[in-house]
Amino acid sequence: xxxxxxxxxxxxxxxxxxxxxxxxxxxxxxxxxxxxxxxxxxxxxxxxxxxxxxxxxxxxxxxxxxxxxxxxxxxxxxxxxxxxxxxxxxxxxxxxxxxxxxxxxxxxxxxxxxxxxxxxxxxxxxxxxxxxxxxxxxxxxxxxxxxxxxxxxxxxxxxxxxxxxxxxxxxxxxxxxxxxxxxxxxxxxxxxxxxxxxxxxxxxxxxxxxxxxxxxxxxxxxxxxxxxxxxxxxxxxxxxxxxxxxxxxxxxxxxxxxxxxxxxxxxxxxxxxxxxxxxxxxxxxxxxxxxxxxxxxxxxxxxxxxxxxxxxxxxxxxxxxxxxxxxxxxxxxxxxxxxxxxxxxxxxxxxxxxxxxxxxxxxxxxxxxxxxxxxxxxxxxxxxxxxx
Length: 388
Known about the structure:
Elements: E1 4-10, E2 13-22, H1 27-40, E3 45-56, H2 58-70, E4 74-79, H3 81-89, E5 97-100, E6 103-104, E7 111-115, E8 119-123, E9 128-133, H4 139-154, E10 161-168, E11 171-177, E12 182-183, H5 184-190, H6 195-211, H7 222-233, H8 239-250, E13 258-259, E14 268-271, E15 274-277, E16 284-285, H9 288-305, H10 309-313, H11 318-333, H12 338-359, H13 364-377
Parallel strand pairs: 2-3, 3-4, 4-5, 6-10
Antiparallel strand pairs: 1-2, 7-8, 8-9, 9-11, 10-11, 12-14, 13-16, 14-15
Helix pairs in contact: 1-2, 6-11, 7-8, 7-12, 9-11, 9-12, 9-13, 12-13
């Protein structure tokens, strides 16, 4: 009986899926079958998937070593704990990249406490939530988000404490500890009488994020990200408008302070009266104006062409979302400044054009609307200085 259940070749990556025990009885067949598969395919990277391998003996280790000697770029994925311990104790983890199997989490019948374009957050139990990605998020992107969250946590930004990467169905997820926590959105929804209290906390969290210093190296530059957004929509603008926007954006001061990039009330939870972030994949470093320009999109700009978007996405009506956005900005800046808000809105329309072109390009009416609004606002400003 073959221990290689199937092979899979994607681009330059060949994956061999094993099952059973690789011991003195089966090692010879495993070696023959592995080298036959290697001979048949053209590839650069070889992955040995051990998710269904229950045991590896010394004879099996010798087969793995022979495969490593034959192929330079070899990785072992989904090693069970017992198999990983054998590979670790014998030194194989120092010569081959070995990844442990991910714990599987069943979210059937779990409470959905938040849902966005890329992920859904479930309450597993009183102490734990899991953020399950909707799309095929690569492991390196998930690990990048976890690393950024850890960096932010060390620097004093309140983030949920992540346990591990898990499998939710056939997609990846991240498990967090958040004891007795609720979404900030739910507090606005169910206790609107405490609106001012929540808004003060919300603005204070944004300030804490936007004044905390990163190392300026391990996070991407917010300005560079937004200049790429401009480059993507540039063909839709006339040359003069595109050049003016480019000059205005290049004039924004570079900073090493954090920009969350998606800090709306569905990405914030509250525990013991303290706010925590649960989504860190958009973290970067740069000027706070980019934070506000990203925030105006979900609160106000989607609603301009998609009535009731606020009720669908936030489960809050348009008036409440506008009030949250406007009063949070007033609290953040210590004043209600139309010029500041106009500059933020201008950048927000740029963001909406980019988002639509990237994720919903068939929505021509939305694209044209935000282009029209951007072109209308642009003559009013010559820079993005907002005085902070």
